[in-house]
User: Fold this.
Amino acid sequence: MSKPVVVCAADIGHLPETQAVLEDAFDVRYVEPTEQSLAQELPDAEAYFASLHVRLTAELMALAPKLRAAATPSTGLDHIDFDAAEERNIAVLGLKDDRTLLDRITATAELTWTLLLACARRIPEAVEHSRKGIWARDALRGRQIAYKTLGILGCGRLGAIVADYGRAFRMRVIGCDRRNVQLPDVEMVSFERLLRESDILTIHIHLTPENRRLIGPDQFAMMKDGAVLINTSRGAILDEEALVGALESGKLSAAGLDVIEGEWREDLSQHPLIAYERMHPNLIITPHLGGVTYESQEMAYKAAAEKLVAFFHP
Assistant:
């Protein structure tokens, strides 16, 4: 009996256990994470193993009449057109609700803290200066974060981990969540208070239609002068034009982003935020590295592969 065909756009060459899970159950077709490659291979596919580098669009799904399920080794789903998948009765298998697994994956929280410290201490600028032999220490004066207020928007798994880091660095930690959440030594406040009181605001909420561009001109205006913003969630939670304005005016002293809206653009170098970053040291962008560690990928990719197998072999 032939195996179901799965198109795998994810790079799993360094994950032999994940490869074994997929190849034992499927006829695996490995492809580059591009729309062109998917368009060529999806017509024969019954399953899809996603990459965050390419979006599974309604147009691509229309080319895949046999497609029954799409698995993604992530909690966010904005790289898959979820509405189109529902219309076509394609199951979307993510990791959002796998709390036991996710509690062991701290990589995104660790990157959040890396960006926070890089912004506060102007690390990219300092490295660039040292590479040029410039030792002008006082020109790179940063900020101590101890005893400052850390605001956490979204106090789920990642928010709770970041709160632990904040307390370890002797910060006052406040949080905001739409649910009735309580974290040790974290004062829960309204969204408006979170904006007004945070010296450093970090975002850990899922992207939904309701919170798309949740933080825009009015919200930036509420924030402290010289505040720092960190986003390792999803780019579309921010109004990116308003973010540039806040950075240019000095309303924000710095921002650290691991995500931007439109990460799948072919002209990514011309993205307004990347164009701004090239010319201004108060914006640091990493290319969606949150979950990209050997340890986190080993756990997440294998779990997603096992979900796909379980769907076809309940």
Q: What stands out?
A: The chain has two domains: 5-100+294-312, 107-285.
